[in-house]
Amino acid sequence: NGNGALGDCCKDQRDCINQCIKGKCNSPKPTSVPNPNTTCTNKSTYFGKKRGNGLYGDCCKDQRDCVNQCVGGICNGPRRSTTPAPSCIDGYKGKKKGNGPKNACCSTQADCREDCIRGVC
User: Fold this and answer.
1) Alpha-carbon torsion 57, 68, 51, 48, what sign?
2) Which sign, positive or negative, has the C-alpha torsion 28, 63, 107, 82?
3) Which pTM was predicted?
4) Using the 8-state DSSP alphabet, how is residue 70 labeled?
5) What is the pLDDT of residues 26-71, one digit of tens each?
6) What are the CB-based long-range contacts (under 8 Å, 24+) for 33-39?
7) Residues 55/69, Cβ–Cβ less than 8 Å
8) 18: left (phi over 0), alpha (psi -120 to 50) or beta
9) Inter-residue contact 8 to 15 (CB < 8 Å)
10) What is the DSSP string of 10-44?
11) DSSP E strands, the chain
């Protein structure tokens, strides 16, 4: 059902998180396992959404909700950054002129000279 982890037996790709190679899944090992006594967070955002973007501690229905693994209904793997978002230069967001310099606020790449990442050129 697509949730086979590293070393699990598989018939084909559909059995694994990543790939099935010579009858074994090559998916990554979990990087960390949430404490089983911990309640999950962000249920309405990640649970059952199948986007593969849930981080450590987020609620999950199955592997498809998490970046890494879904263990006992809680995603494991990388933790959410607690670093505050950088401030950005006003005047470019939503303009779609492609002239936003580095650190300019943006809503899409069309606002920037380069890429728009998390709202900043």
Assistant:
1) negative
2) negative
3) 0.43
4) E
5) 766 555 555 555 688 888 888 999 988 888 999 999 989 988 888 8
6) 33/71, 33/76, 34/71, 34/72, 34/74, 34/75, 34/76, 36/72, 38/74
7) no
8) alpha
9) yes
10) -SSGGGBSS-EETTEE-PPPPS----TTSPPB-HH
11) 20-21, 24-25, 70-71, 74-75
**Amino acid identity at 31:** T
What is the band of 9 on the pLDDT scale with cuts at 50, 70, 90?
confident
Each as own residue / partner, the long-range contacts of residues 25-31 (CB below 8 Å, 24 or more positions apart, any chain) are 28/68, 29/5, 30/5, 30/68, 30/69, 30/71, 30/76, 30/77, 31/68, 31/76, 31/77, 31/78
* Euclidean distance between CA atoms 90 and 101, whole angstroms: 11
Task: Report d(CA 77, CA 42) in Å as an integer.
Answer: 15
Q: Which long-range contacts (CB under 8 A, 24 or more apart) does 103-111 make?
A: none
The two structure tokens encoding residue 55: 């981080």
pLDDT of res. 110: 94
